[in-house]
Amino acid sequence: MGDSIASGEGNPDRAIALADEGFCFRSYFGTGPTQYYRPSRAGFQGTRACGDASDSLASWQRQTAVWLNAACHRSLYSYQTRTAITLAVRNPHIAVTYLPLACTGATLREGVLGPMRARECQDSKNGSCSRNVNAQIEELNKALRAARSSQPERKLDLILLSAGANDIHFSGLVADVLIEPRTLRGLLSRSGVITGIDTSRSALRVDLPKDFRRLRQALKPLVGGDLSHVIYVSYANPALAGGGQPCPGGPAGFDIHPAFKADPERLARVSAYVDAEFLPQLKAIATCSQGVLCDDPRLDAMSFVDAHQSVFADHGFCARAATDPEFDRLCFSDKGTSFSTDFVEAASQPLTCGIGASHYRAYLPRARWIRDANDSYFAAMTYPQGLSVSQPTDIHDATWGILSAVYGGAVHPSAEGHAAMADAVLPAATALLGLSAASTEVTTEWTPRHPFHEEGAHIKRDAAPALPALRTGQKTGQRTGDGSIYPQRSALQACRSGIVTTSPSSAAVSRIWQASRELARTSTPKSSMSSSIGVGLPVFSRHASST
């Protein structure tokens, strides 16, 4: 349960496919050029140049990223999904049933305890879609009632929860750090996109404790009155790099929009506020400590996980390394000059590095475990719809670029970050479930690497490398947006309807898939899950024996 950090925002199950050509955005604010080009969506058949407002949002949305649940941006890469899968893989003698409910944009009032607007509404074949999402607590009660129809005494073993950031307007704080032009800041402040620290602090001290009290009352009946079975997974400070020092700011990583620039002073203030006030207060609320009033602290205190925070101190959005993907090193400028400003050149080649945007790979390992705005655009390019602010009708309006970055995954953990969070959660989950820390031995085996991923491979703009077969005698699977290749659906163990169930099996090979897609790699008991991302290719998990 929870918000965008819980759902896996910024990490679609299939990243968006980008075109190497440019797409025009029209900007109405600031003193710079009124138009600029950024990579387009692959397969988009509408007008890429500015000036024609006839292209509808629906035609643009048809070429979008793929999510386990688009309305809530639920991802199979989220720490909650990874935790459930790892528990199942490490304990083949038990059945693990996982119900993903977290929703991007959710607050405790709207999303967890009450209904909310869908973040993204993709038209179905009959031309309609639901623009609202039921309350997570309502969906959870519904699922539990169904389970109790056959097992009356059944209760939930664990609830994984991350919530509270939207309640204190964290996305507004991000916008406050990033958006530079004064005219635009004024407009977005009035519409609620930008929020200051004082507004956030008021919500943290007054509203959040009240709403947590309501949440406790709603969760208690589901876990037998003992909230220790609710594992609250805290946030990590996203703006730290190099031993916990704040990121220096500047346009690097955020030059996807000309109005973006991480202001150093505002960034330092927000980072200090997160470390000194938000995170400690959140822990006190969840654990009934430091003067926070709970009806019965012995039963109302949640299990609290924050071990991952120290690991993230070296992997904020500004972290860079020589081992970063070649595309990132060549094309994402550390000076914020990644994109061509020449209208003629940018229309056919928007990146100054001269490499096509289609070579970007969302799930290669990187030093940064936090998505920056460039990552957000290149991986998801969300045009959010379930917002309280007014939205433009013209898809070429540059305001979409701001909304996409602020609400579409920027300053959220990458898949590697979620893996590190899952590592932190597993000890608490294992202890609460009464499982042994020792587990069945698991070995992993890589499938052949894509030529693009070979060390030292050179990126060629005009030549896509051939796709290798997975195994001799097997057909090559489909190519996905991150360059991974996946086997045919018939050979895989299914995760149907968003629920993962793993039962005892003596099968030599177990595979997990969703919508013809495998997760990048399963974790082994002997190594950290955060090191299991690899290059995005599937791995076979072999159990040494069946219990």
Task: Give a verbal description of the structure.
The protein is an alpha/beta fold. 28% of the residues lie in helices and 10% in strands. Helix 5 packs antiparallel against helix 8 and helix 7 packs parallel to helix 8 (264-287). The relative contact order is 0.16.
Q: Write down how many β-strands occur, each being a DSSP E stretch of 2 or more residues.
A: 15
Question: What coarse outline follows from CA principal-axis ratios?
Answer: globular
Oligomer: single chain
Helix content: 25-40%
Distance between the termini: 31 Å
Strand order of the largest sheet: 6-7-10
Name the beta content range. Answer: 5-15%
Instruction: Report Rg.
Output: 23 Å
Q: How many helices in DSSP terms?
A: 15
Question: Which regions have little confidence, pLDDT < 50, spanning 5+ residues?
Answer: 439-444, 450-547
Q: Decide which structural class fits the backbone.
A: alpha/beta
In round numbers, the mean pLDDT is 80
Q: How many strands, what sense, and barrel or not for the largest sheet?
A: 3 strands, parallel
Order of helices and strands: HEEHHEEEHEHHHEEEHHEHHHHHHEEEEE
What does the secondary structure layout of this molecule look like, with pairings?
Blueprint: H1 4-7, E1 18-26, E2 35-41, H2 57-61, H3 79-90, E3 96-98, E4 116-117, E5 132-133, H4 136-148, E6 159-161, H5 170-178, H6 182-190, H7 197-219, E7 230-233, E8 240-241, E9 245-246, H8 264-287, H9 297-300, E10 303-305, H10 308-312, H11 326-331, H12 343-348, H13 373-379, H14 399-407, H15 415-432, E11 442-446, E12 493-494, E13 500-502, E14 512-513, E15 539-543
Parallel strand pairs: 6-7, 7-10, 12-14
Antiparallel strand pairs: 1-2, 3-13, 4-5, 8-9, 11-15
Helix pairs in contact: 3-15, 5-8, 7-8, 13-14
